[in-house]
Amino acid sequence: MNTLTVLLLTANLLLSLLLCAGWWRLRSTIASLRAALPCDPGATSAQMLQMARDATPVLSIRILNPVELALNKHWAAGALGRLTPTLLRGIVAHEAARIARSELERHGARAEVRVVSHG
């Protein structure tokens, strides 16, 4: 084999190792994010039903472009969205809840803001 072939094979091997390491790191990040997302839809649903019976106003927000929003924050969001779209939507929802909570507090509102998920 000539020198160029050996160099190309070495470069391909190194690139493959880097891609595997990146994939492994992404998997561990996804696992830790999934573990950090709280989800107790039963309790929340019961509370929402009670609020509906009491005629308490409740705001509902559905984010229609979670992947676009995530891509604006981090370049790896596209890959995360393709691998685990439910997890990506959960992360975006929690970030939106954090923003809504801080904006409401900034305007003097005392509000309970949480993410309700059935996934």
Fraction of residues in β-strands: under 5%
The major pleated sheet works out as: none
Instruction: Flag low-confidence runs.
Output: none
Oligomer: single chain
Termini gap: 54 Å
Helix content: over 70%
Gist?
By secondary structure, the protein is an all-alpha fold. It contains five helices and no strands.
Describe the structure.
This protein has 119 residues and is mainly alpha-helical. It folds into two domains: 1-36; 40-119, no CATH class. 71% of the residues lie in helices and 0% in strands. The chain is built from five helices and no strands. The chain is elongated, with a radius of gyration of 21 Å. It starts with a helix and ends in a 13-residue tail after the last helix.
Please outline the helices and strands.
Layout: H1 3-36, H2 41-53, H3 66-73, H4 77-83, H5 85-106
Helix pairs in contact: 3-5, 4-5
